[in-house]
Structure formats: structure tokens, C-alpha cells
Amino acid sequence: MKEKIIVVGGYGQVGKVICEELGQIYPYKVYAAGRNFQKAEQFSIHTEGRVLPLQLDVNEPIEDDFFLDVSMVVMCLDLQNTDFVQACVKHHVDYIDVTADYSVMSKIQQIHPKASTVVLSVGLAPGITNMLVKQGKNQLDQVDTADIYILLGLGESHGRAAIEWTVDNLSAVYSVIEQGSKKQVTSFSDGKKIDFPAGLGRKTAYRFNFSDQHVLPQTLGIPSASTRLCFDSEMMTNAIASLKRTGIVRWLQQPWIREKVINLFEKSQWGSEIYVAKVEVAGRLNGRHVQYQGSVSGEKEFVATGKVAAYVAKNVYAGQYSLGVFHMEQLFQPTDLFADLSNMITFNEKILGE
């Protein structure tokens, strides 16, 4: 009988949250997996054995019999290719992906499972951001644009993989959809001043290569979508924007400089542990031009990401969902998710111009 839930990267920051949440519901069926068995075993002991340890390298070939009793995999690591995902689908294993790299995500979208449910865009951004945009779309008659803003607290101890992804994308050149056509933009350009909730005030946020802006025109049919990022430390946000303008950020392509910057981010704490996801969805309601504004705020982004992933995983594991590859907003309703997270987030919404 297929009962196992394997969380790859299960002893990392986000993975621990997912394992502990699912381990409470399905004790002794959840496995914290990764290359370091000792770390997995130490975490298992911490959970009093409700979560079990498993050594697994998803970048190496895996025997078919490995999947015989596996029902679901939750992926918390950035993949180099889709080989492991295709192995899961081949063996009728449901797959939940918590990563944010659109280059791999776009390839996973091309897989056609015959007996599996694959859910992408799970976490804060993408994830909560996608659901906020869907909440706005649900309340309008017509949607023209969706602008997404992420504020991250630099006082939080972010996982190394997340820091690496952020640093590597500081100089990214990518395309966004504006009025149905592709437009090339660069990270940390085109700043916009935004009023953030939770007493954070007005801050400048800059374009950043989050996957939600690539996905939402496909899944929700929105003609224009963009995502911008800033930090709770205005000094750090401004410093990065200045480095980008002067071209110094290109030095991050040098491996030794990149390593030093990543180490600096990993060891330093310059702000709070707050995070905010805010969206502005513009369109029409009852014949009038309006703007929906919705936001979710809280502390410890990695906990929010883990809780969202656990919500998706427990629903897919327990329920009957369509077979195929989906993004989170295609299977779930925002009000249900926000209700599930209500003890750890603050959700606000309003419609301007009614």
C-alpha cells in the first residue's frame, strides 16, 4: 500500500516545518529525506520518531522499487532537471514543489501525468502571491493588470539555498507579460513606491524574477503581471539598487565574490523577521475602473512557506484532485488557505474606486 510521504530537504528550514506539520497528522509515514542521513536522523529524534529519516540524492539515478510504497513527494530543493519529477509521475506518485525557479518549473509544466497530481507554485512567492491575485480576480468582473510586491525581513535566518537563488537573480534579465506581449526587463530596476501594511510605511520595490509573474498570465488569463521586491532595511534595498545601476552587481558572476556575498547574507541580520506579500489587481467592477488591494503579513517567511506546503500536501494526500500538472491557484481557493493560516498571518483586502 502506498502511504509514504517523502519530504526532500526535510531537515532544512522549510522542510522541518512541513515534516512536523504532516508528522502530527500522519505519524511514522513522513520521511525527512536528503543526502545527509545524520542530519535527517537527528531531526527524526527531535520529532520523537514521528518523522523518519531517509538518505536520498535526487540528482542520482533511483531504482524503480524505491517508489513502490511512496504516495507523495514534497520537494524543497532546487532541481537541476526534471528527471526525478518524471520518475515520480512514472510511478504514480503525487508531487508538490516548493521551489521558485521558473526555468525548471516551465519544464515540469510540459509533463503529462496519467495517474498523479503535480502541484507547483507552493509557498510565499510563488504561492500566497498567486492566491492573493486570484482573490482579487474573484471579486472583479474584469482584470487588466496584477502587480505583486514582496517585502522580506533581513533579520530572519534565511536558508542558504534561498539566499543563493536571490543573489543569482540580482542581475537576471527576463521577460514579463504586458498587455499580452513579452517585454524584457532586468532585476532591481524600475522601482515603484508602495505603501506596505503592518506599520512598514512607504518603500521602493524593484523588479525581481519571481515565477508568479510568469505563471499568472497562463493560469488566470491576466494580460499584464509584474513582481517587485524590497527589504525591510531601506539601506540594504537602496544599496543593492545602486550597485545594480553602476553595474557592480555583475561582479557576482565571479565565484569567489558570489560565495563571499552569500556568506555575508547568511551570517548577518540587519532587520526584522517580518514578511509581506501585497498585490494590486486593477480592472473593472460594475462598469467602473477599480483596484483590488490584498495583503498577507506575518513573521518568519520560511514558516509561512512550510505551512502553505503542508496545507497543499495534506489536501492532496487526503482528497481526490484532478490528474495533471497544476499551479496552486488552479486547485485551491484563497479564502480556504487564508483561513487555514489565520493563526499566523494578517490578511487585509479592500477595493478602491467602487
UniProtKB/TrEMBL annotation:
SUPFAM superfamilies: NAD(P)-binding Rossmann-fold domains. Pfam families: Sacchrp_dh_NADP. Residues 5-116 form the Saccharopine dehydrogenase NADP binding domain. Gene3D superfamilies: Dihydrodipicolinate Reductase, domain 2, NAD(P)-binding Rossmann-like Domain. It comes from the Bacteria. This is Saccharopine dehydrogenase. The lineage of its organism: Bacteria, Bacillati, Bacillota, Bacilli, Bacillales.
